[in-house]
Amino acid sequence: MKTFAADRFAPNDTELSTLRNMIDGASILVTGATGTFGKVFVAKVLSQFNPGRLIVFSRDELKQYEMQNTEPYRSNADRLRFFIGDVRDAGRLEMAMHDVDIVIHAAAIKQVEAAEYNPFECIRTNVLGAQNVVEAALRNGVKRVIALSTDKAVSPINLYGASKLASDKIFVAANNLTGNMPTRFSIVRYGNVMGSRGSVIPVFRRMINEGADSLPITDPRMTRFWITIDQGVNFVLSSLVRMQGGEIFVPRIPSMKVSDLASAMAPHLPQRVIGIRPGEKLHEMMIPEGDARTTVRLGDCYAILPAYSFWRDKDAPPLQAGELMADNFSYTSDNNNEWLDIPTMAAFLQDQAM
């Protein structure tokens, strides 16, 4: 089942060798590291590499305490550092990034409805927090920074998406400020992470377990991209090797109708249509047509290249070697050429439940 293979997007042998040279003995900081992505990323780095120091940076002391006292984090206490902090706090970020080589920025306010109801908080975390990460990285001479984005940043129709679009622009433009410094900033953008707190899968599973007599579907035409958390972590690691600064890396992942997902999880339950919620799209978009002229295909992913690139290493393998996409190209969950069917999804979810 290659679609859900844990090693999909995993670094190849050459990339793995480069990553070992980059990570072994290095200091890494992960913002939002007690979230779904952060915990898996930290665990994978600890198991596959030998970082000198791995900093868990987040604002939730309970989640940090729970993380410290579970495996594999507990047995790697000598390499882990737990920093209570908020990306809104520029001074704390700058202190935490002292002597750090790599930053993975995963902290964000991600819930669409929460962002709509608390707009100032969303902007402070997702936009001003991005600025704080950039400035702290520049002041400390961090070598590589990767920020996690979302499909909702493309043609946004809600505040969460708009704030992540602004964040993406900040991280791309940050390369303009590096001068002779080694610091480089890039972005990874992907769709729904299966089983994460923001995914519909846990919602459907809870309703099924509670004996629901039907599952709610906003629109039977609705489609979504899907990626597993292991694949998302692999893709970030591969992008660390490929990045030269300013790229938005987008994995090529499968689509599925939400109604088919419901059928895979509960074939015995009817579905009731409740209508699209405010701020919700019928289909997801990860590359708009307007970015086609600067988008290249690189095997298992696309890269949206920056408009300016004077900071690039002239001796590095050029990403421009990838296949340049046609002017009318776009990458949306309804025009995808890779689709999940109901049996494949049902088998995967059954495996995960065991």
Would you spell out the secondary-structure blueprint of this structure?
Blueprint: H1 13-23, E1 27-31, H2 36-48, E2 53-58, H3 61-68, E3 80-84, H4 90-96, E4 102-105, H5 112-117, H6 119-140, E5 144-150, H7 159-173, E6 184-190, E7 192-193, H8 200-209, E8 215-217, E9 223-227, H9 229-242, E10 248-251, E11 255-257, H10 258-265, E12 271-273, E13 285-287, E14 295-298, E15 301-304, E16 323-324, E17 331-332, H11 342-353
Parallel strand pairs: 1-2, 1-4, 2-3, 4-5, 5-6, 6-10, 7-9, 8-12
Antiparallel strand pairs: 9-11, 10-15, 13-17, 14-15, 14-16
Helix pairs in contact: 1-9, 2-9, 4-6, 6-7, 10-11
Short descriptors:
354 residues; alpha/beta; Rossmann fold; ten-stranded mixed beta sheet; three-stranded mixed beta sheet; 11 helices; 17 strands; 36% helix
Q: In words, what does this structure look like?
A:
- There is one protein chain.
- With 354 residues, this protein is an alpha/beta fold.
- The protein contains 11 helices and 17 strands.
- A 10-stranded mixed sheet has the order 3-2-1-4-5-6-10-15-14-16, with helices on both faces.
- Strand 14 and strand 15 (301-304) form a beta hairpin.
- The longest helix is centred in the middle third of the chain and has 22 residues, at 119-140.
- The two termini are 17 Å apart.
- The model has no long low-confidence stretch (mean pLDDT 92).
